[in-house]
Design a protein that fits this description.
Keywords: Nucleus, Phosphoprotein, Repeat, Ubl conjugation pathway, WD repeat. 30% of the residues lie in helices and 27% in strands. It has 749 residues and is of the alpha+beta class. Among the domains are: 226 residues, no CATH class; 88 residues, Monooxygenase (Up-down Bundle), CATH 1.20.1280.50. The strands form nine sheets. A four-stranded antiparallel β-sheet has the order 3-34-33-32, with no helix packed on it. α2 crosses α3, α4 packs parallel to α6 and α5 packs across α7.
Amino acid sequence: MNQDLLVPEPAPEPEPEPGHMNREREPQQQRGERGEEDEEEDDEEEEERERSGEADEAEEEPWPSGRESVSRNEGAGEGRREEVNGGEKAVQWLWEQEQRRRQRRRRNDDEDEEENNNHGDGGERRVRTGLHAEEDEEDGEREEEEEMDQESDEFEASEDSAREEDEEAEDEEGETGLHSSPVKTGESDPKENADVQSGRQNQSSSSSQHTHPQMKRKLDHGPEVRPFPSGKKPCPSPTGLVPYPSTPTTFGDLRAANGQGQQRRRITSIQPPTGLQEWLRTFQSWSGPEKLLALDELIDSCEPTQVKHMMQVIEPQFQRDFISLLPKELALYVLSFLDPKDLLQAAQTCRYWRILAEDNLLWREKCREEGIDEPLHIKRRKVVKPGFSHSPWKSAYIRQHRIDTNWRRGEIKSPKVLKGHDDHVITCLQFCGNRIVSGSDDNTLKVWSAVTGKCLRTLVGHTGGVWSSQMRDNIIISGSTDRTLKVWNAETGECIHTLYGHTSTVRCMHLHEKRVVSGSRDATLRVWDIDSGQCLHVLMGHVAAVRCVQYDGRRVVSGAYDFMVKVWDPETETCLHTLQGHTNRVYSLQFDGVHVVSGSLDTSIRVWDVETGNCIHTLTGHQSLTSGMELKDNILVSGNADSTVKIWDIKTGQCLQTLQGPHKHQSAVTCLQFNKNFVITSSDDGTVKLWDLRSGDFIRNLVSLESGGSGGVVWRIRASNVKLVCAVGSRNGTEETKLLVLDFDVELK
């Protein structure tokens, strides 16, 4: 005989008929008013209900509901027992037995109400003394325990035997209904209390060994629990869950679905007022608007204490944590729509929300939206609490947020001062990782540590001033007025190759992987292999000095003093397009693989289609030479000698912002750089300014030379996520030539 049984949770009852929910709360003592002379009449009515239940059997769902008749359960029992095996069969059968008991109890309640309506309140109520009530309670407890054990032991008996046991149980319960003890409104009868007490005793006696799953029983005041008989091992139910009604239709159903049916309403022990049931039936018969109107009038006539009682009952049902009710995957999907700042606030809601908000994949997506490409791995001194996991991506976002805050309003610490190149001009500046490379017209390049501020190497070899440079990893390439390019090892300071070929100053260059393209005042461009030092291609076509060049590995774009912009195929050494339109020298150039943007001394900026060579937009607004530009994701920032900086959308040709106002530069803009949040600009006025990219608002001065306005100049700037490097000096000796390194980094403990 299979003893490993688990009593499943019965499904919540369907939507009650009008007045039914209140009929369940009728005083159970009314059962005592029924005389023995009515028993035969009740039995006949019961048989009629059973026969009517059999007629509807074929239309019911496989899982019975709380309103199914006894005959339906008996008739379907044999078919189900043939379909299930083992533990599933046991669970199904025990579930049916419980449904039968609940149906019988509900019929008794309906009959009590009908009899009460027939006899009125004038009939004499027969009640038993408190002593007899206690005896009934103890008897009911013993009977319930014996009945549960008997059902488990005799499960494999024939269906006829099971039907006989049901009839005996029905007779016993009928007697109990005739001799019930008085109970308070909203409370269960003694037999049901005996069920609860028996379940608690069994649960406490077995708690030292096992915690058995419990079966909920819906009593008059809500579902209670009764554990499986002590000594029986639980087994899983067929589906793991007992089906619930699709959607709660009344507030009572909502409370039961929310699992808060055990919260009793605080009602004093008085009998229901006369006419309550009739009023409830009338209320249920009204339309929706009529019900709302009636409730409005009812609330208006309530006292504050009564309204408070209603709030205590209603409010908890609508304060649900919907996130905790969802599977983790869906909960994370919902949270993914929050901004990172809102997500951090949501983590403070409760423990479970904090666990969800620490999800590493969730924060990885947030970091990628903010342009953070790598997680942050930090050493934590504190032990992480159980249930919580450290998210490197979340740490990376928090760190970046604090860094941005430092840029905006953090205290600017004293910068590191890197002195070198004496009083010469720093003509080119590169910054990669923790290495800074500066080139000067003193014929040298210097390699600096951005961490310590020390000069690591001085690269000596050129015989003329250095006017252009590029750096990648440990490779540095420099171009000079001595008409050569040199390839250096940044670690050792060794010159690996000297590239000969140009016949004038190497004024510009662009490095892509293993190849570098150089432009010279000799009007030619050359493509070099930096590993071998060989000149691979020579691009000829300009008729004046080449001032700027861009290279994406497939095409070369060059701008020159002949007012022309040319697009080249370096492999065939052919000019694909000559972009004509400027009326003066081209000084600056940007190329993103799709668009070519050129800045000229004619004050205009032109946007070209690299495939067709057509001019898409002409950007006007500056008043002088466009000395510097930077292009990212169709956003162009241009700096001009007229002291203004403009932000453009090259897709539409619209000027989004002009960085000016009372805090604008007072002299020509020499260099600029921007990221997703900020624009950094330098000027001949000796200042470095920080601007908001989106709004165009001035944030603050990052550098302000004391000699600014009297000769002090910021020639070049280069910035990383956490550091800013400025090359400063003067043309009249008022400011010493040096590099300033500002650090905005933060540490997470």
